[in-house]
Design a protein that fits this description.
Blueprint: H1 3-20, E1 46-51, E2 56-60, E3 65-69, E4 75-80, E5 88-91, E6 95-100, E7 105-110
Antiparallel strand pairs: 1-2, 2-3, 3-4, 5-6, 6-7
Length: about 110
């Protein structure tokens, strides 16, 4: 992974952690964190995000779509997986993985 991609990945991980927890480790203000950018979500109810060294992958809570988004926040591709995985997304270098707390399944998806 190039240094630039690593920096983008780290930024989005921190953005997710600090945004989801209300700032710094579990809520309560979080000093020292600074949001440097925000982007519109491709879905009204985003859930789960992964980074594949080039693009972000964003799932949606109440649907079956995954969106491939560039680091500028632009939708590159919309994919209807026809499978509800609403909890989380991860990328292992080859496959995109999704988990679903409603059916108890883990989905392994090929991204071409």
């Amino acid at each position: 992974m190039s240094p630039g991609h690593r920096a983008i990945l780290i930024f989005f991980i921190f953005l997710f952690i600090f945004g989801a927890c209300g700032g710094g480790g579990g809520g309560g203000g979080g000093t020292g964190s600074v949001v440097v950018a925000t982007y519109s979500s491709p879905s009204a109810d985003p859930a789960g995000m992964a980074f594949d060294e080039t693009h972000l992958w964003v799932g949606e809570w109440a649907g079956t779509m995954i969106y491939r988004v560039d680091t500028g926040g632009n939708i590159v591709e919309s994919i209807d997986t026809k499978t509800p995985f609403r909890e989380d997304l991860a990328f292992d270098g080859t496959y995109l993985w999704g988990a679903n707390g409603f059916d108890g399944l883990i989905y392994k998806m090929r991204i071409d």
